[in-house]
């Protein structure tokens, strides 16, 4: 067997055997297959795709190419959740404690943010005292005690994906649906779970800009999950505007808290409840319909049980909840700049990726892995698509520790907002693939 024949076969759309893909994986990891050969192979996949068998085998090889994570879950079911990344996406902060308040055990590993989308770990670390560097054993103990724990993803999982992704990144082969699906699901399958709820973002702030591509990705990932014995559901959710109104780490914690207090954005609340409901359903709750579970989630948001769980989750991992309760006081030392509109207008569309990049510029994210985050930096949007603005209305407040960044960000923010009567506002949940 040799790599040139394997590339030739993929180039001619001839299905590769499992042995050939294993040969590719082994050679890539060991370094006997060179970067230019990996690049050619990835480009052949980019143009010719993968058959189902190839897709399942490649995903399996990625999943098994590093450390495998297992939780000692006793008789409990563990359901994982994953978002493909969006702007203002704080659903994990809401959906996980909410599902836990209804009895689902949560042990989850999450990532840090890079680029224009944020990471759950950074949002949690913005709460003074909150630690995320727990060992797996410690996470098990916390979730044994309190029903929920969340820690940083492990560095050594899915080693093959690290090599492939770094080459895809510089060879124009990132946006291939089978490569994205096998990359994401390979990492998910390296972590033991009984089911996976995926939130596939679609729109101007997402990786998938069109509905057709988002649906294709969602279907491909659900197919992979099921083939590997994991019950998998994907919600396709709209990212043509930021999710909710708060973007930035501590600001997003504030907005999550507002949802638990019965306030806050309806789209954010609806999507978080749906994610929670599917998690509970996948755990094997066949006694109730999705609608009944959804209703119980709503009840727990109203009766304070979900808020209690949110509080204990933060306290158990070292966070000081008083900073969240008195957030106005805590935010006081961050500089801000209000953006006022000078004419009557409607917001017709938002370039959400640009809004994410504006938050990044303000200090809310990282351009490279070594950057230090300003946890209080970010944006509150008071108006979104379809909202009418009267002259002198405040459309947004920008937060940063730097006056210079505030001024630069103002221009960038305004360029991302389009005004007019051609309003195209989509539902937050665009489809569900089961
Ligand atoms: N996220 C991943 O983990 N992999 C991809 O290929 C794209 C996005």
Brief sketch in words of this structure:
The chain is of the alpha/beta class. It contains 18 helices and 13 strands.
How would you describe this protein?
By secondary structure, the chain is an alpha/beta fold. It is globular, with a radius of gyration of 22 Å. Helices cover 47% and strands 15% of the residues. The chain folds into three domains: 3-48, Transferase, Pyrimidine Nucleoside Phosphorylase, Chain A, domain 3 (Up-down Bundle), CATH 1.20.970.10; 79-156 and 164-324, 3-Layer(aba) Sandwich (Pyrimidine Nucleoside Phosphorylase, Chain A, domain 2); 333-419, Aldehyde Oxidoreductase, domain 3, CATH 3.90.1170.30. The strands form four sheets. It has a four-stranded mixed β-sheet with strand order 1-4-5-13, sandwiched between helices. The chain has a four-stranded antiparallel β-sheet with strand order 6-9-11-7. The chain has a three-stranded antiparallel β-sheet with strand order 10-8-12. The two termini are 39 Å apart. Uracil binds at residues 165, 179-180, 183-184.
CATH class of the largest domain: Alpha Beta
CATH architectural name of the largest domain: 3-Layer(aba) Sandwich
What's the count of strands? Answer: 13
* Helix fraction bin: 40-55%
- Helix/strand class: alpha/beta
Q: Give the DSSP E fraction (strand runs of 2 or more residues).
A: 15-25%
Largest sheet: 4 strands, mixed
Distance between the termini: 39 Å
Broad shape: globular
- Work out the count of structural domains: 3
Q: Give the ligands present.
A: uracil
Assign the CATH topology of the largest domain.
Answer: Pyrimidine Nucleoside Phosphorylase, Chain A, domain 2
Return Rg in Å: 22 Å
- Give the overall pLDDT as a whole number: 95
DSSP helical segment count: 18
Low-confidence blocks of residues = none
Provide the spatial order of strands within the biggest beta sheet.
Answer: 1-4-5-13
Function: Catalyzes phosphorolysis of the pyrimidine nucleosides uridine, thymidine and 2'-deoxyuridine with the formation of the corresponding pyrimidine base and ribose-1-phosphate.
Enzyme class: transferase
Keywords: Coiled coil, Glycosyltransferase, Transferase
Catalytic activity: 2'-deoxyuridine + phosphate = 2-deoxy-alpha-D-ribose 1-phosphate + uracil; thymidine + phosphate = 2-deoxy-alpha-D-ribose 1-phosphate + thymine; uridine + phosphate = alpha-D-ribose 1-phosphate + uracil
């Amino acid at each position: 067997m040799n790599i040139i024949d394997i590339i030739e076969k993929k180039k001619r759309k001839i299905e590769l055997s499992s042995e050939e893909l294993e040969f590719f994986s082994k050679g890539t990891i060991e370094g006997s297959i060179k970067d230019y050969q990996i690049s050619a192979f990835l480009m052949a996949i980019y143009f010719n795709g993968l058959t189902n068998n190839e897709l399942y085998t490649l995903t399996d090889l990625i999943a098994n190419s590093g450390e495998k994570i297992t939780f000692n879950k006793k008789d409990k079911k563990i359901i994982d959740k994953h978002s493909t990344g969006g702007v203002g996406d704080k659903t994990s902060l809401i959906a996980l404690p909410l599902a836990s308040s209804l009895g689902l055990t949560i042990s989850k590993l999450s990532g840090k943010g890079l680029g224009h989308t944020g990471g759950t770990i950074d949002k949690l670390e913005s709460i003074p005292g909150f630690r995320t560097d727990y060992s797996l054993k410690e996470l098990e103990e916390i979730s044994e005690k309190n029903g929920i724990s969340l820690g940083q993803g492990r560095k050594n999982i899915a080693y093959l994906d690290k090599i492939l992704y770094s080459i895809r990144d510089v060879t124009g082969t990132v946006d291939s649906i089978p490569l994205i699906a096998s990359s994401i699901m390979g990492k998910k399958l390296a972590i033991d779970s009984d089911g996976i709820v995926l939130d596939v973002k679609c729109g101007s702030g997402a990786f998938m800009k069109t509905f057709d591509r988002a649906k294709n990705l969602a279907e491909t990932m659900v197919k992979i999950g099921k083939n590997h014995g994991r019950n998998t559901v994907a919600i396709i959710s709209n990212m043509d505007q930021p999710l909710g109104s708060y973007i930035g780490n501590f600001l997003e914690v504030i907005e999550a808290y507002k949802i638990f207090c019965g306030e806050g954005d309806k789209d954010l609340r609806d999507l978080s409840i749906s994610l929670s409901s599917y998690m509970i359903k996948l755990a094997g709750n066949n006694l109730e319909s999705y609608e009944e579970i959804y209703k119980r989630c709503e009840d727990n948001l109203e009766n304070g049980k979900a808020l209690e769980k949110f509080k204990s989750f933060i306290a158990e991992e070292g966070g000081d909840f008083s900073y969240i309760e008195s957030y106005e006081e805590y935010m006081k030392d961050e500089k801000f700049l209000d953006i006022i509109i000078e004419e009557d207008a409607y917001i017709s569309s938002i370039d959400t990726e640009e809004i994410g990049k504006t938050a990044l510029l303000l200090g809310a994210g990282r351009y490279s892995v070594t950057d230090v985050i300003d946890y209080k930096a970010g944006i509150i949007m008071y108006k979104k698509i379809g909202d009418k603005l009267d002259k002198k209305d405040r459309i947004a407040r920008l937060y940063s520790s730097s006056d210079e960044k505030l001024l630069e960000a103002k221009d960038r923010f305004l360029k991302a907002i389009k005004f007019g009567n051609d309003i195209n506002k989509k539902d937050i949940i665009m489809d569900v693939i089961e």
